[in-house]
């Protein structure tokens, strides 16, 4: 039987990560980073373990061999990812939830660049957010809280009045550091995190929209 969770207070806005949270692009991510790792001669498994939730530029900077042109490598990866939409699908229940939420009460905060984020959101058939904070908009990527703090500010709320939906340790750390509530999407990465309530998808999530804000609860089911 599934356990139930409910946050004790309503939130004023929801801040969603993208990859692994409202959609999955794992096959495309694996293809792109495998190709890049092979291109520069670095260990694929190490790259895949490190990259979750982080901006591509940070991962490239971390692994690129001495003498690599970081900007050129990032441009190469961007071009590869922008032509690959195979296997990009919405997390179950995400489309219904996002469509139901008031447009001024949610945002996407992603470590992808804006062009890639809009391409993947469209490919997954999800509604495009009015507010999208991408890697292009921040100077410090997750696990730094800058992106979530920026999204809350643009929506007109304190970060402490927002609920962050995230799937990676870098993103969870960023959400907590911003002072927001955090709900974890239990996917392939960082399943060991036990500090936050978690869900596997949105099919068991209930959101009540009232004058007080967005009250959220639902069923917790075990990850596959």
Protein architecture, described:
The chain is of the alpha/beta class and 224 residues long. It has two domains: 3-24 and 88-220, 3-Layer(aba) Sandwich (Rossmann fold), CATH 3.40.50; 26-82, DNA polymerase, domain 1, CATH 1.10.150. It is 36% helix and 20% strand. It contains eight helices and eleven strands. A six-stranded parallel β-sheet has the order 6-5-2-7-8-9. The protein has a three-stranded antiparallel β-sheet with strand order 1-11-10, with no helix packed on it. β7 (162-166), α8 (169-178) and β8 (181-185) form a beta-alpha-beta unit. α1 runs antiparallel to α4 (70-82) and α3 (56-63) packs across α4 (70-82). The longest helix is centred in the N-terminal third of the chain and has 15 residues, at 26-40.
């Amino acid at each position: 039987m599934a356990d139930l969770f409910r946050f004790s207070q309503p939130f004023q806005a929801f801040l969603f990560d993208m990859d692994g949270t409202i959609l999955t692009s794992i096959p495309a991510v694996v293809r792109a980073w495998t190709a890049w790792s092979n291109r520069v001669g670095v260990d694929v498994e190490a790259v895949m373990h490190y990259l979750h939730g982080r901006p591509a530029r940070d991962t490239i900077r971390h692994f690129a061999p001495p003498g690599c042109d970081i900007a050129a490598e990032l441009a190469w990866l961007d071009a590869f990812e922008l032509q690959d939409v195979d296997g990009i699908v919405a997390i179950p229940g995400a489309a219904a939830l996002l469509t139901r939420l008031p447009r001024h009460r949610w945002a996407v905060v992603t470590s992808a660049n804006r062009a890639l984020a809009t391409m993947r959101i469209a490919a997954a058939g999800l509604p495009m957010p009015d507010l999208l904070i991408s890697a292009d908009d921040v100077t410090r990527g997750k696990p730094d809280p800058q992106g979530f703090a920026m999204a809350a500010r643009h929506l007109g709320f304190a970060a402490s009045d927002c609920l962050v939906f995230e799937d990676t340790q870098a993103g969870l750390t960023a959400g907590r550091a911003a002072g927001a509530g955090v709900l974890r999407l239990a996917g392939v990465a960082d399943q060991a995190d036990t500090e936050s309530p978690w869900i596997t998808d949105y099919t068991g999530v209930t959101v009540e929209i009232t004058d007080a804000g967005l009250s959220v609860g639902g069923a917790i089911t075990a990850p596959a």
